[in-house]
Amino acid sequence: MIRYLTAGESHGKGLSVIIDGIPSNLEISKEYLDFYLSERQKGYGRGKRQQIEKDDAEIISGIRYGKTTGAPVCVFIKNKDYENWKDIIKSEKGEPENEFNIPRPGHADFAGGIKYNQYDLRNILERASARETAARVVAGAICKKILSEFDIDVLGYVINIGGISTDSDKNLTIEKIKSKINQVESKINGDLRFPDFEKAKKIINLIENVKKEGDTLGGIVKVITSKLPVGLGSYVQWDKKLDANIAKAILSIQAFKGIEFGAGFSYSHYKGSQIHDEIYYSKGKFFRKTNNAGGIEGGMTNGEPIILTAVVKPISTVLKGLYSVNIRTKQKVKTKYERSDFCAVPSAALIAEMVVAIEIANAFLEKFGNDDLGAIKENYKNYLKYIKKY
Ligand code: EPS
Q: Ligand 1 atom 12: the closest Cα is on which residue?
């Protein structure tokens, strides 16, 4: 079983991740991890913080001579901004400087302050910050590497920012969508993870206007996989259902508010006979002509790609301010602005890709073993042979 924990504050010394359950003999290099860390930092609409950080994976344990050993993998990512915050974020005794007393609507500040009995809400926001997702990207990248050993790919991308949406990805393979995204990015000279050039231009205008207004934007991301083997996850117990585990992972990403698999909420528009993916068999293979289920039936992969969409709310640190209450004085005030992103949906899409990869890899290892990659490959080969005969 893959388990991971992260630690670290947004402006503290750095972020750590411990990932347990990664099989041995998987090739992982620092360069490989750094590639995905830098991908997460990109994205049109990010704020000034990303000009300070250059995320860099320091491998602490679990990897030797470029391969995993089977021991827990631990990676540290230093926060470069800590140098500017070390007098504010320190562990030694003292009185907090510049207390943060005005909870931002939409952020963890309000509930977190009451829950942990903190009046300096910096103690809440530092940990609630989406900076934490850098650590998750390390876990995700390692899981993506496991999946790639079995020719399984996962892609997270954007289909909507601020209400401007595209369906130009419809029925396309991962490779085609990646190539459309690359084309858009070379034309706009920026990173949107979005596959439609005409709409991308509109999105960029929108982001620029929203920046001027001092506001923020959310959007919708989509995650798709290549075809998966039948039978990852299980119906036999609630916590083995792959869709449930993916939904939990997606909603655990900062700012995500909803998820749909396949036809999602539009299932309600149809009768059963119109929407379920009928099963066919030809030339020794079962197949479907549609994938409304989004690749999962009964909590298990059904052989089709997993397809999901998820919504990200607009960032809650809003420059123009929102009404709130000073928790010390109880006075009605507008929120104060320090610094933030205006739109982080492209990064959110990558993080969604990562957490989905973690859940699929977990279900994969549950089925095929998780000690040595070579043994897992043998088990997988045998399973594919078995499926052919079924
Ligand atoms: C974040 C606020 C911003 C973002 C941060 C998440 O940071 P700061 O307050 O330092 O300007 O840039 O995201 C990251 C630092 C990152 O690496 O993704 C928040 O409040 O969630």
A: 49
